[in-house]
Amino acid sequence: MSSPEEKWLLCPICGAKTRLRLLQRTVLRDFPLFCPKCRQERIINAQNYQIEIIDQPDAKTQC
User: Fold this and answer.
1) Measuring CA to CA, which residue among 12, 13, 16, 2 is closest to residue 45?
2) What's the pLDDT tens digit per position in 13-23?
3) Per-residue DSSP letters for the chain?
4) In the chain, domain spans
5) The model's pTM
6) Contacts from 32-41 at CB under 8 Å and sequence distance 24+?
7) How far apart are CA 8 and CA 23, in angstroms?
């Protein structure tokens, strides 16, 4: 089903499989990753199977 050069993209929060697979040559920048298990969305960068979570500041309320 999946070839040896493919890996499932795992949720950085709960570790569950997401619906995406990565190839070694896949590069993601500012990608919104949604996890169907924990139902959270994170912005990530990915390259060479390494995932980096991008910390985005919360929106400030206007007074």
Assistant:
1) 12
2) 999 999 999 99
3) ---TTEEEEEPTTT--EEEEEEETT-EEEEEEEE-TTT--EEEEEEETTEEEEPP-PPPPPP-
4) 6-53
5) 0.74
6) 33/9, 35/11, 37/11, 38/11, 38/13, 38/14, 40/11, 40/13
7) 9
How many CB atoms are closer than 10 A to CB 22? 20
Residue 33, judged by CB atoms within 10 A of its CB (0-12, 13-18, 19+), counts as buried
Q: What is the pLDDT of residues 15-62, one digit of tens each?
A: 999 999 999 999 999 999 999 999 999 999 999 999 999 986 666 767
14: left (phi over 0), alpha (psi -120 to 50) or beta: alpha
